[in-house]
Amino acid sequence: PTPETWRRVDAYFSETLVGHDEALEAAVADQEAAGLPPIEVAPVNGKLLHLLARMSGARRVLEIGTLGGYSTIWLARAVPDDGRVVTIEAEPRIAELARRNFERAGVAHKVEVRVGRGEHVLPTLTGEEPFDFVFIDADKESNTLYLDWAARLGHPGTVVVVDNVGRGGEVANPATTVSNVIGTQRGLEMLARDPRFDATALQTLDAKGWDGVAIAIVTAVGGT
Ligand code: DHB
Ligand code: MG
């Protein structure tokens, strides 16, 4: 397929099955106006996260990497009114922008933004109720660390989704020197070898280009 054909198919799927949504589009517009990169998930991918969270019956969702909160809004809409999405954002300025987007989307009561780097914030979540669903979408160099915390903070049955595992095909280059691709490869190798997970991955061709998503289930909990 050429970019023209698969972009047309993605637009068709988006228009047919996702539709337009003011709060989500405003969140992306504000993110862009703030000079942030347009690296939120594609609409079809946001809806995939939403459906996976609903299918798994998730009440407590953990997201690592908030940005403008586009995927966070999709996830917050998937949990019941007494559910929670805890989302981790390293940059205070971005966290504030995301909070305004959650207010406008009417999901602020279900979302907690924790500001700080994942490696610092994740250990503080240890005493809380376990998470039913984890979405990993931050610095790819830390994917193995984030997966370890997903297993620690989850329970058998917790669904884990990792964004950007295709990386324009570079993920299949064993000689790559790109640090975020190496981080992605280590994460996938961990999902394969670590007995706490069972996983697969799918390539995606959507509004964000050629990439991929890994989907895993936590089979056992605890640290390695
Ligand atoms: C990048 C990060 C993402 O999470 C994404 O979805 C696309 C690109 C990046 O860092 O380039
Ligand atoms: Mg991403």
UniProtKB/TrEMBL annotation:
Record-level Gene Ontology MF annotations: O-methyltransferase activity; S-adenosylmethionine-dependent methyltransferase activity
Name recorded for this polypeptide: Putative O-methyltransferase YrrM
Pfam families: Methyltransf_3
Entry superkingdom: Bacteria
GO biological-process terms attached to the record: methylation
Keywords: Methyltransferase, S-adenosyl-L-methionine, Transferase
